[in-house]
Amino acid sequence: MSSPKIVEGVFGERYLQYPKSISSAQLLRDVQQAFDPSKLFAPWLHAEKTIRNRELASQRQRRRHKRIQVKVGHGGTLDPMATGVLIVGVGQGTKFLQNFLDCTKTYEATVLFGAATDTYDVLGKILSKAPYAHVTRTVVKEALKKFRGPIRQRPPLYSALRMDGKRLYEYAREGKEIPREIQERPVTTESLEICEWLPGGSHKYAWPSEEAAEEEKSVADKVLHVGISLGQAKREARSAHDPLDADDNSGKKRRRESEAEDEELITTNPTAKRQEISPEPIMSGALQEAAKVNDEGLSAAISPTAGTQMSSGEQMLEDGPPAAKLSMTVTSGFYVRSLCHDLGQAVGSLGIMSELVRTRQGNFQLGQNVLEYEDLRRGEDVWAPKVEFMLDEWQKNLAARLDNDPLSGNEPVRSG
Question: What pTM did the predictor assign?
Fold first, then answer.
């Protein structure tokens, strides 16, 4: 009589975080809650119990209070306001998740022009506003050229990167000074295109209504480099491009989405020139509470600000700021929020990320080979056949790779 089939490996799941505020950790708990009592993973749990019973007494003693559960993990968190693909490892599949941290990812992101925030997205506080009447599809398309290929990018302050063993967002929340400036780091943009141009008044996106305090704005100019290159970028954008674009004046109502993420360490270059550190805290005050979200997925703290008079004497268009939907494939460590921020300055304005979707990670792609999050709530009869199929496919692909290159896998595949 053959042993019960043990299923484990890696699969993709459609991650619905924003605006539902489901963290990556919570999604794993939901997965585990569905998997633990299921028939599909009963053989895996039985095998795990058998393994523990064979352990030495000292090992059993250490784990005596640890409940036996289906082992799950994910292959990289998503940005706090992102949706899209989240890689989930099950059993021995968790040992391969590092491969997905290092692989390329594809995102769809929407950048809204004319404002900068402390978080580089619509959930933050306004640090500065800038004219945007000159920002057209042509201007943006031309500016994207400088962000393709190998580039250097400065991560946001509100990120999970570590500095001296502490995450950057923890410094911000506690109002503590960052030990040194956040350094730019190398990343690669394999492809970057504008998918859709959204003229002012033709989309749902709007700036946050809450502005940062004056001391926060002053510090942000030093630390986040808001506005440092605004004047120069504005002159370059206007001299290089015609500010009028025939496409930009016709606007049909459209909408869309985007993405970004947190990972890896910040290190100091010991040979770098010593930099002056301001005696002021890098970021003061606590992290703002998460914005309340209405049924349409829009932050309750977001409101239109059309017609605002700029300090330069230029008036913004009554229809409000334009937005652009971008599609990109990038390497590990890339921050879409930073791209939106930097692109805003590159076109002689400012920019914030308004929506983000991870459409692909590795070989898992939306609409092709991912489990819908809602399937977990529909019961085992719905999700189990899909999960089993995806884990079987992953095992077959892994076995094929090992046959071709025995060193391509770092762990043997356990079979029933």
Answer: 0.75
Cα separation, 113 vs 104, in Å, equals 27
Structure tokens at 394: 């992953």
Asked if 351 contacts 144 with a C-beta cutoff of 8 angstroms, the reply is no
Which DSSP symbol is given to 76?
Answer: -
Confidence class of residue 298 from pLDDT cuts 50, 70 and 90? very low
Q: At what angle do helices 336-346 and 230-240 cross, to 10 degrees?
A: 60
Mean pLDDT over residues 340-367, rounded?
A: 95
Place of tokens 């792609």: 365
CB 108 within 8 A of CB 193: no
Residue 165 · residue 171 · CB < 8 Å: no
H or E element at residue 138: helix 137-143
Q: How far is CA 72 from the centre of its chain?
A: 21
What pLDDT digit, counting tens, does each position of 95-133 carry? 999 989 889 999 999 999 999 998 899 999 999 999 999
Give residue 278's identity as a one-letter amino acid code.
S
Burial 308-321, CB ≥16 within 10 A → b, else e: eeeeeeeebbeebb
Strands (DSSP E) found in 273-397: 323-330, 351-361, 364-365, 370-372
Identify the three-state secondary structure at position 20. coil
CA dist 40 and 125 (Å) reads 47
Residue 262: which of 175, 192, 334 has the closest Cα? 334
* Stated length of the chain: 416
C-alpha closest to that of 116 among 17, 228, 278, 280: 228
Q: Hey, which residues are catalytic here?
A: 79
**Higher per-residue confidence, 67 vs 249:** 67
